[in-house]
Amino acid sequence: MQRSAVAIARNVRCKTGLGPVTAIRRTLAIKSVGKPAVMRVASPFGPLRLFAAADHLVGLYLPDRPAPDGVPGENAVLAGCATQLEEYFAGTRRAFAVRVIEPGEPARAMSRSSSSSSSSSSGPLPIALIGTPFQRTVWRALLDIPYGETRSYGELARQLDRPRASRAVGAANGANPISIIVPCHRLVGSDGSLTGYAGGTAMKRGLLALERRP
Fold it and tell me: Which pLDDT score, from 0 to 100, does residue 181 have?
Protein backbone atom coordinates (compact mmCIF):
# COMPACT_ATOMS: atom_id res chain seq x y z
CA MET A 1 0.00 0.00 0.00
CA GLN A 2 1.31 3.46 -0.86
CA ARG A 3 2.32 5.50 2.16
CA SER A 4 0.98 9.00 2.60
CA ALA A 5 3.18 12.08 2.30
CA VAL A 6 2.61 12.82 6.00
CA ALA A 7 3.80 9.37 7.11
CA ILE A 8 6.93 9.57 4.97
CA ALA A 9 7.72 13.10 6.14
CA ARG A 10 7.40 11.99 9.75
CA ASN A 11 9.86 9.15 9.13
CA VAL A 12 12.28 11.51 7.37
CA ARG A 13 12.23 13.94 10.31
CA CYS A 14 12.68 11.22 12.93
CA LYS A 15 15.69 9.71 11.15
CA THR A 16 17.44 12.86 10.01
CA GLY A 17 16.29 15.70 12.27
CA LEU A 18 15.44 17.80 9.23
CA GLY A 19 13.43 21.01 9.67
CA PRO A 20 9.88 21.26 8.28
CA VAL A 21 10.95 22.91 5.00
CA THR A 22 13.59 20.28 4.27
CA ALA A 23 11.29 17.47 5.39
CA ILE A 24 8.68 18.60 2.87
CA ARG A 25 11.29 18.68 0.10
CA ARG A 26 12.60 15.22 1.01
CA THR A 27 9.07 13.80 1.33
CA LEU A 28 8.12 14.97 -2.12
CA ALA A 29 11.34 13.57 -3.58
CA ILE A 30 10.57 10.17 -2.04
CA LYS A 31 7.03 10.29 -3.35
CA SER A 32 8.26 11.36 -6.81
CA VAL A 33 5.32 13.71 -7.17
CA GLY A 34 7.35 16.79 -8.04
CA LYS A 35 7.23 20.10 -6.24
CA PRO A 36 4.29 21.17 -4.08
CA ALA A 37 1.67 23.51 -5.47
CA VAL A 38 2.18 27.06 -4.23
CA MET A 39 -0.13 30.05 -4.35
CA ARG A 40 0.56 33.60 -3.24
CA VAL A 41 -2.20 35.51 -1.50
CA ALA A 42 -2.29 39.14 -0.39
CA SER A 43 -2.53 40.09 3.27
CA PRO A 44 -2.29 43.33 5.25
CA PHE A 45 1.26 42.26 6.15
CA GLY A 46 2.51 41.38 2.69
CA PRO A 47 2.20 38.35 0.40
CA LEU A 48 1.73 34.96 2.01
CA ARG A 49 2.75 31.71 0.33
CA LEU A 50 0.49 28.69 0.67
CA PHE A 51 1.82 25.18 -0.07
CA ALA A 52 -0.23 22.06 -0.72
CA ALA A 53 0.92 18.50 -1.35
CA ALA A 54 -1.08 15.27 -1.54
CA ASP A 55 -4.38 17.06 -0.80
CA HIS A 56 -3.04 18.63 2.41
CA LEU A 57 -2.01 22.14 3.32
CA VAL A 58 1.60 21.67 4.39
CA GLY A 59 2.83 25.25 4.65
CA LEU A 60 1.80 28.86 5.11
CA TYR A 61 4.89 31.03 4.98
CA LEU A 62 5.10 34.67 6.03
CA PRO A 63 6.74 37.41 3.97
CA ASP A 64 10.54 37.07 3.83
CA ARG A 65 10.52 33.69 5.58
CA PRO A 66 12.48 30.88 3.83
CA ALA A 67 10.13 28.43 2.12
CA PRO A 68 10.41 25.34 -0.08
CA ASP A 69 10.30 25.54 -3.83
CA GLY A 70 6.91 25.07 -5.41
CA VAL A 71 5.03 25.11 -8.67
CA PRO A 72 2.58 28.03 -9.00
CA GLY A 73 -0.95 26.71 -9.20
CA GLU A 74 -4.32 26.47 -7.55
CA ASN A 75 -6.34 23.56 -6.21
CA ALA A 76 -9.25 23.11 -3.82
CA VAL A 77 -6.99 23.05 -0.75
CA LEU A 78 -5.18 26.28 -1.65
CA ALA A 79 -8.41 27.99 -2.73
CA GLY A 80 -10.14 27.00 0.50
CA CYS A 81 -7.21 28.26 2.56
CA ALA A 82 -7.14 31.56 0.66
CA THR A 83 -10.84 32.09 1.25
CA GLN A 84 -10.57 31.47 4.99
CA LEU A 85 -7.59 33.83 5.22
CA GLU A 86 -9.48 36.55 3.35
CA GLU A 87 -12.37 36.22 5.81
CA TYR A 88 -9.97 36.24 8.76
CA PHE A 89 -8.26 39.45 7.67
CA ALA A 90 -11.66 41.04 6.98
CA GLY A 91 -12.66 40.28 10.57
CA THR A 92 -15.55 37.99 9.59
CA ARG A 93 -13.86 34.71 10.56
CA ARG A 94 -12.88 34.06 14.16
CA ALA A 95 -11.91 30.41 13.79
CA PHE A 96 -10.32 28.48 10.94
CA ALA A 97 -12.19 25.34 9.91
CA VAL A 98 -9.44 22.74 9.73
CA ARG A 99 -8.96 19.01 10.07
CA VAL A 100 -5.56 17.79 11.17
CA ILE A 101 -4.38 14.83 9.10
CA GLU A 102 -2.68 12.28 11.30
CA PRO A 103 0.50 10.51 10.10
CA GLY A 104 -0.50 7.74 7.74
CA GLU A 105 -4.03 9.05 7.26
CA PRO A 106 -5.09 9.97 3.71
CA ALA A 107 -6.86 13.28 3.24
CA ARG A 108 -10.38 13.36 1.87
CA ALA A 109 -10.45 15.54 -1.22
CA MET A 110 -12.09 18.91 -0.77
CA SER A 111 -14.87 19.72 -3.21
CA ARG A 112 -15.47 23.03 -4.91
CA SER A 113 -18.64 24.85 -3.98
CA SER A 114 -20.98 24.99 -6.96
CA SER A 115 -23.21 27.64 -5.42
CA SER A 116 -20.72 30.46 -5.79
CA SER A 117 -18.43 31.82 -8.47
CA SER A 118 -15.73 32.40 -5.87
CA SER A 119 -12.88 29.98 -5.22
CA SER A 120 -14.34 28.82 -1.91
CA SER A 121 -14.32 25.10 -1.12
CA SER A 122 -16.60 23.05 1.08
CA GLY A 123 -15.53 21.06 4.10
CA PRO A 124 -12.78 21.67 6.64
CA LEU A 125 -9.29 22.44 5.38
CA PRO A 126 -7.01 19.37 5.70
CA ILE A 127 -3.69 20.36 7.23
CA ALA A 128 -0.63 18.17 7.77
CA LEU A 129 1.53 19.03 10.77
CA ILE A 130 4.91 17.72 9.65
CA GLY A 131 7.28 17.63 12.60
CA THR A 132 8.50 15.65 15.58
CA PRO A 133 5.92 14.20 17.99
CA PHE A 134 6.65 16.99 20.49
CA GLN A 135 6.35 19.70 17.83
CA ARG A 136 3.02 18.30 16.66
CA THR A 137 1.79 18.23 20.26
CA VAL A 138 2.67 21.90 20.66
CA TRP A 139 1.10 22.85 17.33
CA ARG A 140 -2.12 21.02 18.21
CA ALA A 141 -2.20 22.89 21.51
CA LEU A 142 -1.83 26.19 19.64
CA LEU A 143 -4.99 25.35 17.70
CA ASP A 144 -6.86 25.33 21.03
CA ILE A 145 -5.92 28.90 22.00
CA PRO A 146 -9.08 30.94 21.36
CA TYR A 147 -9.22 33.83 18.93
CA GLY A 148 -8.23 37.08 20.62
CA GLU A 149 -6.47 35.38 23.53
CA THR A 150 -2.84 34.63 24.30
CA ARG A 151 -0.89 32.14 26.39
CA SER A 152 2.66 32.30 27.66
CA TYR A 153 5.26 29.71 26.74
CA GLY A 154 5.31 28.59 30.36
CA GLU A 155 1.52 28.27 30.52
CA LEU A 156 1.49 26.05 27.44
CA ALA A 157 4.35 23.95 28.82
CA ARG A 158 2.39 23.38 32.03
CA GLN A 159 -0.74 22.57 30.02
CA LEU A 160 1.26 19.84 28.27
CA ASP A 161 2.52 18.52 31.63
CA ARG A 162 6.02 19.64 30.72
CA PRO A 163 6.48 22.54 33.16
CA ARG A 164 10.23 22.82 32.54
CA ALA A 165 9.89 22.75 28.75
CA SER A 166 9.02 26.39 28.08
CA ARG A 167 12.11 26.82 25.91
CA ALA A 168 11.29 23.66 23.95
CA VAL A 169 7.76 24.98 23.50
CA GLY A 170 9.23 28.22 22.19
CA ALA A 171 11.45 26.34 19.75
CA ALA A 172 8.52 24.26 18.48
CA ASN A 173 6.43 27.40 18.16
CA GLY A 174 9.15 29.01 16.04
CA ALA A 175 9.29 25.94 13.77
CA ASN A 176 5.56 26.03 12.97
CA PRO A 177 5.24 25.68 9.17
CA ILE A 178 1.57 26.74 8.97
CA SER A 179 1.58 30.26 10.38
CA ILE A 180 -1.62 32.16 11.27
CA ILE A 181 -3.88 29.11 10.84
CA VAL A 182 -1.85 27.35 13.53
CA PRO A 183 -1.71 30.51 15.65
CA CYS A 184 1.86 30.69 16.89
CA HIS A 185 1.35 34.46 17.18
CA ARG A 186 -0.81 33.82 20.26
CA LEU A 187 2.15 32.71 22.37
CA VAL A 188 3.82 35.51 24.31
CA GLY A 189 6.45 35.94 27.00
CA SER A 190 5.58 35.48 30.67
CA ASP A 191 5.41 39.27 31.00
CA GLY A 192 3.24 39.64 27.91
CA SER A 193 6.12 40.65 25.66
CA LEU A 194 5.83 39.87 21.96
CA THR A 195 8.85 37.67 21.41
CA GLY A 196 9.88 34.91 19.07
CA TYR A 197 7.74 35.42 15.96
CA ALA A 198 9.06 34.56 12.50
CA GLY A 199 7.10 37.42 10.93
CA GLY A 200 8.58 39.97 13.32
CA THR A 201 7.21 41.90 16.28
CA ALA A 202 5.19 44.33 14.14
CA MET A 203 3.30 41.53 12.41
CA LYS A 204 2.66 39.69 15.67
CA ARG A 205 1.32 42.89 17.21
CA GLY A 206 -0.83 43.49 14.14
CA LEU A 207 -2.36 40.00 14.19
CA LEU A 208 -3.19 40.25 17.89
CA ALA A 209 -4.68 43.72 17.36
CA LEU A 210 -6.82 42.40 14.50
CA GLU A 211 -8.19 39.66 16.76
CA ARG A 212 -9.00 42.13 19.53
CA ARG A 213 -11.08 44.45 17.39
CA PRO A 214 -14.71 44.61 18.53
Answer: 98
